[in-house]
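We were asked to recover a plausible sequence for a given structure. The inputs and outputs are reproduced exactly as logged, with field labels preserved.

PROBLEM: sequence recovery
POSITIONS: 390
GIVEN STRUCTURE:
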């Protein structure tokens, strides 16, 4: 980074002198030593030293507490990974999973009552309301109990969304020893098939944590004020919903619907979007210039099953393959992001694309909770940025 740059008076604020360092601007007050860094989009700003996970966008690689995410997705259960993220270690005795299951089942009656007052809400809104209600009802303040209550509230919201009047009670009762099976049984009222289980378990693990980003920053901002885990998670959901972040997954689902119905040539579709200066969801990432490791994992799995793919899966793979040939994407390093594929795993598990973002929030709640406790452990100061007046 070039640090020997011109210093000049900031046009809008004569009290500051301004120094350009790469894409950021350092503003120094004229009469004292204080400084402000102007970094729109926070592209060059680290707000904390996190102990939760690591991302290396160059390899590219993602790890949770030192464990590679792709290995975790193949070898572990979501509850184990959630515990690893939140506590920094995995617990082989299943105690956290039992707590998670008990919390989910405990939240069901109150969540059903809540649903009756907002029956037409999208799942993300219902999920937020369910977490806030759980916060109001919570009696335990321990780390594991709080985490299980938050994640349990989100799982209960998903189950109630599918079964508002509680018709699946019997099948829920026979799936009380596995968190992912419990969700599937509660949603669909039948014993989960192995393929549906694998798809949902992989999905929940792959998206459980992804370092610093808009939603994790929202979570850590609330925590830094002394706010509670329930409020922090609701802030995370609110930030995640937007179409440039976790909301992209829902939009990719809509794109696949349109392409499946129209049969339009994939390359023509991409070119048409680019010509009209539209962004194509499922591509591009702030930190990766190569294919994101989560997307690579899902793409490779689809390629291994070439002969057994659904129509949607074939279209998503064709989009990924066509994008490699698009000049603008090659030049700018715009590669496939996980939102191109993650709805496909959910579809295999039985969900529809309008639920994609809410299920991403359920998955990411583990990472958000890990950041919540990491922020408390490291005694992070109040996150209080500045602005410059025009
Ligand atoms: N389709 C078309 N063009 C794109 C795309 C895309 N998906 N992504 C970036 N570009 C172009 C932009 O139009 C811009 O071009 P221009 O300079 O000619 O105007 C250039 O690439 C740089 O775009 P920025 O938004 O400045 O780049 P940034 O690194 O901030 O983008 C982002 C990251 C917002 C994710 C972007 O790639 C995007 O909008 N993607 C589509 C939405 C999406 O899939 N989001 C999910 C991200 S993954 C996640 O959050 C889980």
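RECOVERED SEQUENCE:
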């Amino acid at each position: 980074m070039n640090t020997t740059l011109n210093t000049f008076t900031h046009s809008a604020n004569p009290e500051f002198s301004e120094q350009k360092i790469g894409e950021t601007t350092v503003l120094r007050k004229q009469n004292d030593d204080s400084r402000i860094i102007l970094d729109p989009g926070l592209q060059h700003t680290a707000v904390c030293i996190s102990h939760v996970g690591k991302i290396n966008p160059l390899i590219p690689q993602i790890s949770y507490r030192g464990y590679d995410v792709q290995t975790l997705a193949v070898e572990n259960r979501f509850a184990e990974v959630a515990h690893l993220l939140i506590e920094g270690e995995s617990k082989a005795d299943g105690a956290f999973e039992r707590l998670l299951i008990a919390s989910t089942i405990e939240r069901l009656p109150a969540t059903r009552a809540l649903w009756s007052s907002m029956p037409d809400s999208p799942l993300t809104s219902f999920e937020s309301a369910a977490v806030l209600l759980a916060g109001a009802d919570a009696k335990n303040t321990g780390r594991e109990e709080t985490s299980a209550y938050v994640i349990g509230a989100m799982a209960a919201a998903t189950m109630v969304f599918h079964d508002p009047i509680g018709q699946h009670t019997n099948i829920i009762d026979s799936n009380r020893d596995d968190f992912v099976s419990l969700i599937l049984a509660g949603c669909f009222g039948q014993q989960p098939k192995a393929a549906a289980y694998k798809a949902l378990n992989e999905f929940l693990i792959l998206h459980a944590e992804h370092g610093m980003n808009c939603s994790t920053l929202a979570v850590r901002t609330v925590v830094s004020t002394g706010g509670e885990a329930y409020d922090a998670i609701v802030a995370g959901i609110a930030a995640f919903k937007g179409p440039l972040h976790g909301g992209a997954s829902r939009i990719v689902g809509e794109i696949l619907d349109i392409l499946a119905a129209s049969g339009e040539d994939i390359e023509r579709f991409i070119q048409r979007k680019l010509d009209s200066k539209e962004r194509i969801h499922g591509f591009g990432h702030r930190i990766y210039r190569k294919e994101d490791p989560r997307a690579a994992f899902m793409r490779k799995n689809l390629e291994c099953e070439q002969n057994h793919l659904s129509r949607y899966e074939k279209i998503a793979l064709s989009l990924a393959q066509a994008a490699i040939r698009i000049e603008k994407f090659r030049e700018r390093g715009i590669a496939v992001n996980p939102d191109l594929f993650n709805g496909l795993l959910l579809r295999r598990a039985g969900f529809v694309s309008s639920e994609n973002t809410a299920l991403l929030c359920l998955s990411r709640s583990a990472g958000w909770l890990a950041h919540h406790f990491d922020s408390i452990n490291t005694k992070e100061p109040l996150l209080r940025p500045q602005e410059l007046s025009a």
